[in-house]
Amino acid sequence: MSYNAKNYTEQGGDVTHIGGTLIIEEGATVEGLPSSFTPAENQADSEAETVDALKEEFNGLLAKLKTAGLMEADAEPETDAT
Questions:
Q1: How many structural domains is the chain composed of?
Q2: Which domain of life does this protein belong to (predicted)?
Q3: Helices (H), the chain
Q4: Which of 2, 9, 34, 41 fits 64 for a cystine, CB–CB 3.0-4.6 Å?
């Protein structure tokens, strides 16, 4: 009988293979990973008193998320080449 582990460390300990699920428990940290995360610009708390003002603030939030790369940008509108 043999056993093949999905997760294993190679001899010498320099390389670990994760073929299964890696669960990071609450409070755990991961060190050494490069961070490509860019926080979005701050969005102030809403003081909107009208639906139009709230819409404007919400669209501002969406723009900040897109600029930070946390949301895909809008698709370019198709143009008629006729």
A1: 1
A2: Bacteria
A3: 51-67
A4: 41
